[in-house]
Amino acid sequence: MNPPKPSAPAPAPAPAPAPAAEHARARASKTVAQAVAGVAGVLALWLGATGAMLWATLAPDERSQAATLLGPRAALLLLAATVLLAALAWAVPRLHRRWVLAPALLADQARVLLGSDSAPDLPTQAGADLQGLAQTLNLLVAQRRQLRADVAQQVQLASREIEQERNRLAALMSELSQAVVVCNLDGRVLLYNASARAEFRALSQAPALADGAELIGLGRSIYTVFDRRLVAHALEQIDQRHRAGQTSPTAQFLTSTPGGQLLRVQMAPVRAAEAIEAGGAGGAGGAAPPVNGFVLMLANITLEFEQASVRDGLLLGLTEGSRASLGNLTAAVEMLEYPDLDTAQRERFQAVVRDELALMRQRIQDLAARTSQSLVTRWPLEDMLGADLVAAAQRRIDAMPGLRAAASTVDATLWLRVDSFSLLQALAYLAGRLADEYGITMVELRLTAAPTASTAPAAALLPGATAGPATHAHLDLIWTGQAMSTETVMGWEADAMRSGSGASPLTVREVVQRHGGEFWFERERVRHQAFFRFLLPVADAARGVLAAAAAPVQLAPHDSRPEYYDFDLFKHTGLSGALDDRRLDALSYTVFDTETTGLEPAKGDQILQIGATRLVNGKLRRQESFEQLVDPQRDIPAAGIPIHGITPAMVRGQPVIAAVLPAFHAFAQDTVLVAHNAAFDMRFLQLQEAATGLRFDQPVLDTLLLSAVVHPAQPSHRLEDIAGRLGVAVLGRHTALGDALVTAEVFLRLIPLLAEQGIHTLGQAREAAQRTYYARVSY
Amino acid sequence: MSASILIADDEPNILISLEFLLKRAGYNVSLARDGQQALDAILRDRPALVLLDVMMPIKTGFEVCQAVRADDTLNGTRILMLSAKGRDTDLAKGLALGADAYMTKPFSTRELVQKVQDMLATPR
Predict the structure, then answer these.
(1) Tens digit of each residue's pLDDT (9 = 90 or more) over A649-665
(2) Is A533 among the domain residues?
(3) A466 beta partners
(4) How many domains does chain B have?
(5) Pairwise CB contact (< 8 Å): B105 & A352
C-alpha cells in the first residue's frame, strides 16, 4: 500500500554549460575566420574578373593609358582593398553572431527545455526580434509547466482518494461480522475478511494445524471449498436474471462441506468498470457488462439450521399434540352433556378429561423448558468481551455531568452475547436517573459469572442451567446512599429511556428482553449499597474462542492492518501456460523451512517443526502462515537443541509427521515451493512420501542457489549472510517460521536482481540455479 | 338394519367418546387400535363407513386408506379421516389418497354425527 508517486517527468540531465560554451566559441571563431576569408576571396575574384574583362576590351593605346593612370595609384587601391577587408572582418563576426549563432543558441536552449521543466528560462537579452521569440517560448514553457503541475496534482488527489477508499473498504471488511470473500473469475481469492477466516477455520479438516489457512488465502482457489459447478451455476443464474431485466441480480446457494457443515452462500457479480460506464446509459436492456469476478457472502447455518429444525419439531409437536388432546377433550365434554349417562359412563368421560388436561399441562411445561433458550431471543446479538463492555459503560457514564463511574470486580474471561448499544444506553439512563433523583455522584460497575447448577442453591437455578461453565453473567450497577423503595426504582424499568445525550423509545425492560435476560434491584444492607442487576447471556464457548482468535490476527506488529486483499489479482486471469513460462513476480509461492533432529534424514533424522508463509503477487502474506511442531517419535539429540531450541517437552503431545504433512500439503497446493537450501528440506519431505502417499511434486526454488546466481563471487550463501547483503532484518531466526519469513524476504529481493541478469521466468530461474556450482553438492 | 361403522384410532380417550356417541346414534360400532387392526377389520367386517385416524402405529391412516382404495371389492367403504394434522397439505393428501371427507381435530361431535349421517345417506 505505498502511496503512488506523483507522475511528474523525471528531470533530464542538466547540460554542462562551461565546456559546451567554450567549444561553441572555438567553433564560431573558426567559422568567422573562414567566412571573412571567403568573402575577401570572392571580392578579389570579382575585382580580378571585372578588371580582366575591362582589360580585354581596351585597345593597346588605351591599355598603356590605363597603366600609366592606375600604376602610380596602386598603393591607394591596395589601401581601399585593405579597408574593405578590415570592414568585412569587423562586420562578419557580428552578423554571424547576430543571425547564426544567437538563433542556434536559442534552439539549443529551447531543446533543453523540451526535455525538462526544471531547466532555466531562455535568456531574453538577445536582439529585439529574437527577444520576442524567446519570450514566447518562455511563456509556452511556463504554460506547459503549469499544466503538468495540474495534472500531477489531480493524479495525486485521485490516487489519494483511491487509497482512502481502499483503506475504508479494508477497515469495513475487517470489522464486518459477515464473512466476505471476493474472487476473480478463476475463483482466485482477491479479498477476504477476518470473519471469513474464522468461518474457514471452522471448515478446515485440520483446524489445529493449518488454522484454515490451507483453505483461504490471497490467490488461493475458492474451488477447494466449493464445487466449481455450484459457482458456475450461480453465475449463470445471475446472467439470466440480468438478461431478464434485473438491475443488480444476485444468486444464492446452499452447500455442505466434507466436514458436514452447512453453508449459505450469497453471490454478487463484480463487473468490469469500463463496461459499467459504457453500458450505464443502456441500462438493463443492453448487453451484460462482462463479469470479471464475484463477491461471496458466507454464512455457516449449520447451527441455525439445527435450531430451526428443533424449533419446527417443537412447534409441530405443540400444534398437533394439542389438536389431538383438544379433540379428545371436546368429545368427552360433549358426551358429558348428555343427561341420560349412567354413573359409570359419566366417570369414564370425566377420567378422559382429567387425563387429557394432565397431558396438555405436561406438554406445555416440556415445551417451555426446551425453548427457553432458542425461542426467546430473536434480536441479533454480538459477542463482546465483558471487560470491554464495562470499560465502554464507564466512559459513557464519566461523560455525564456530575457522575463518576468505577469498575469494581470485573471477570476478564467473560464473553457476553449482547446488543451493546442498547445495553450501554440502559446503563447510562439508570445512572442518570440515580443522579437526578437521588443525587448519586458515584457508581460502580461489576461483572461476574452467574452461579450455575453446581454452585448455586436449587432455588436460584436458571431455567435450563446445567452444571458446567456459566451460561449467564451478572452485570451490576452499584451505588451507595439512602434507602429507596423497590417500587420506585423498579418503575424506571418500564419508562422510556431518556439519557443525557438523547431519548430512546426503548425501555430497560425491552432491552433486557432483547437479551433474553432478567433485571432486578437488590440491596446489600450491611454495606449500605444497592444495585441494579442485569442477568445477561454469556457467549457460546466455541464462539467466544473464535472471536478471541479472530481478534489478534495481526501477527506482524509493523503491519497496521492485515493484508486481506489484493485487487491487483483482478488482472491475474488466465493462469494458462506452463508454469515454467510464467514470470517470477506473477507466481504464488509457499516459502518454508523445517527444523530437524539432525542433518541426515537417511539415518533416521526427523522433522521437528514446519514453518511456512506465502508470497502472492509479489507480496509477503504474513498472516497466511503455517507453523507446527511435530512429534519426531524419537529422541532429540542434545547437540541440536541450542540451535533450534526445541526440547522433548515441547513436542510431547504434538501431532506426528503423518498428521501434519496432509495439512502442509494442502497449504502448499497450487504454489511453487521456496526454501533455503531446498534440497535438504525436500529430502525430508520425500522420505515421507511412501508413508503418507503425499507427493510434493510442484516446482522448487532454492534461495541459496539463486543467491549464487546473482552474486557468484560472494564466498558465503548462508541465509544470514544473504539477508545481510540484501538488507533483510533477521528476527526470530531458527524457528521454522522465522527462517521461512527471512527466506521469503530474501527471495523477494532476489527477483529484481535476477531480472537484471535477464532471468524473468520460473524456467529461466530453475535453469540458472542448476548451473551454479552449489547445485552440484548433493545430500 | 343399522349401518356398521369402524372407528380406528390409537387413542383410547377418543375411542370412548366416539363409540358412545355413534352407538347412541344407532350404529353398529366396532373398534380398531392401530392401522393393521383397522385394515383387517375392514376386510373382515366390510363396514359401511370407517372413521380413520391418520397417526396410528404399524400402518398410518394414509396407508390404510390407500390399501382400501386399491381393493375393488371394498368399493363401497366410505372413509372419513380424522387428524390432528391441520395443514392444507395433509388435507389434500388425505383426499388425494381416496378419503371421502377429512375432519381436523378438535371437532364438534354434533358435526361429526351429522357428517356420518350425510355420508351414509349418499351412495358411493
Answers:
(1) 888 888 888 888 888 88
(2) yes
(3) none
(4) 1
(5) no
